Amino acid sequence: MKNNKKNYYGSLSSLVYDQTKPPGTSIDGDIQFYTNELIQRAGIVLEAGVGNGRMAIPLLRKGIEVIGLDNSEQMLNIYKQNLIKYNMESELILSDLKEFKTDLKFETIIMPNGSFCLLDREIITLVLNNFKAHLTENGRIYLDLIFPISFKPGNIHEYDFACENGDIIKIKNKSISMDWINQKTYTELEYTRNSEFEIQPFTLWWYGVEEFKNILEELEFKNIKTIQNYNNAKNLNLKTLTFIFEK
User: Fold this and answer.
1) Mind giving me the DSSP string for the chain?
2) pTM score of the predicted model
3) For 51-82, how does the pLDDT look when each residue is reduced to its tens digit (9 = 90+)?
4) If pLDDT is split at 50, 70 and 90, which confidence band does 4 have?
């Protein structure tokens, strides 16, 4: 048995993510939104939680310079393979978000599709301050916060995932609990392939709009604004809220 760290992508979960969401897979229009935003900005972009390059590689193909940061070695190895596959180049940083260090300064830092919500609430100020330390003087941050609008505690979904090489990974997705007081959900995913077994515990935190704005103001970020659902007016339910703010 192999137990993964909380909110971490191991070998099996990384493989499934890459084959279900390969580079160029837009989620609710996020790639189009970020492309339109970033193509107007100069300088280097840091994608925090770059994963397999789902978003980074389309940005690179548009001529946007992106450096990828992730805490999962397995995910970064897949990203390296995808860079070769798509004939792209990018620097990679393997590190925790609150502890990474580089001499580079970024014009923009992005964390799309709710990855920020996987960070423990206790460390988000450390992460945000570390982001600020790596921004240029007029640098900007884009963070997507997501809301658990379809989460139902007690739901269990089991299915077989067919890999490209013909292997079968059995997946059990268990929605365990929703904590309304502390604003978090807890999910466990189990992956089984032959003798391999991997557990992926997921805690997802959510924030109120004014609550998160107050956090940013206390950290002295400026020009804070929000965009709902990547400006997609057809989506009437608030699923994604993008915070945009500056150093």
Assistant:
1) -EEPPTT---HHHHHHHHHHS-TT--STTHHHHHHHHHTT--S-EEEET-TTSTTHHHHHHTT--EEEEES-HHHHHHHHHHHHHTT----EEES-TTT---S--EEEEEE-TTGGGGS-GGGHHHHHHHHHHTEEEEEEEEEEEE--TT--TT-EEEEEEE-TTS-EEEEEEEEEEEETTTTEEEEEEEEEETTEEEEEEEEEE---HHHHHHHHHHTT-EEEEEEEGGG-TT--S--EEEEEEE-
2) 0.91
3) 999 999 999 999 999 999 999 999 999 999 99
4) low
